[in-house]
Predict the 3D structure of the following.
Amino acid sequence: MTNVHKILNDPVYGFITLPDPLIFQLLEHPFFQRLRRITQLGLSYLVYPGAYHTRFHHALGAMHLMMSAVEILKRKGHEITREEERAVCIGILLHDIGHGPFSHALEKSIVEDIHHERLSLLFMEELNRQFDGQLTMAIEIFKGEYPKRFLHQLISSQLDMDRLDYLRRDSFYTGVSEGKINSERLLTMLNVSDDQLVVEAKGIYSVEKFIIARRLMYWQVYLHKTVLSAEFLLMMILKRAREIHTRGGSIFGSSALRNFLCQEVSLAQFEEDPQWLYHFSRLDDFDILGAVKEWCHHRDEMLSALSHRLIDRKLLGIEVYNEPISNEYQEEIRKKTRDFFGFQQGEERYLVFVDSIANHAYDPRKDSILLLNKDGSTVDIAEAADQLNISALSHTVRRYFICYPKEIRNT
């Protein structure tokens, strides 16, 4: 290999250097290149016009932060071998490789109950086979099975390189300044104590800001009510398309999409037959959006109407509440929808639906963010913070919503 130490220009961090020939080969692999065609924030660009960045961007950014974190920990006297450094960089580079297009809508419609983390691991195992076992250590770290537990925490914890990058990157591309965090300061404060990733106590305020920024980004971006309306609408479009196929109707779609649209595929099939992984690796945003554009002209009136709503951004109305929505109000909305459109009982299910969302900015029961005091003791951030809201943010906030056609509001 020649000229493998590539330098890429990233709008968030500036120049990013690929540190290893193997990492360069992984980046060039079709499995990873697919991430260029999958947006990081799904349909959020319908609310934030700049949010067109991809999972490819995010993976590179997270790897860049990982390289910085490893260098800082090494300077503080913690032994990380060159092989471990390469492995943890590979682990974070590939941590999202199992994401499909518009993941949340996909996982609730045509690739049901198959979590992207499990697919990421299957992709890594297949790449390990192709690269003659060179990803074995990376997989062990990714799964939390490697002896140095703090390396896994750099990939997956409540203060990992994944979260540090996506908060800063998503804030940059959406323009939501509340999500902006000082990732350099947080990285500088990282340390290791008793094989646990910790933050030096003087970094407490940076950690507080990180937790609050994550909470605000969830309400303002990831769980924005218009984004929810769009994602659930896409989910209903895919469900309707599958129903049409099940009834024997004709449905347009690329071969990559039809592999999953026209049959139910289980996680066991992915695990037993590698061919399904290759089918999935061909599926991206273009397959979904191209099909929805074509379905605007489908002879099935419901599929056509749903598709037009998404393509033309004529989204469903949404109401969000702090308490569960009463059955009486749900039925009132359904009846109004049936009356307005002339639907039979049950036909309104594609236009009226109820669900809930949860925001959990910090969960000390899972993987605490520990502060390292000068005397070597550690304490949970929720106990040490002088802002009462950090403790409050450790509780799950759940909200309930109902989507329905805006046309019925004045009926």
Observations:
- The mean pLDDT is 93.
- The chain is about 50% helix and 10% strand.
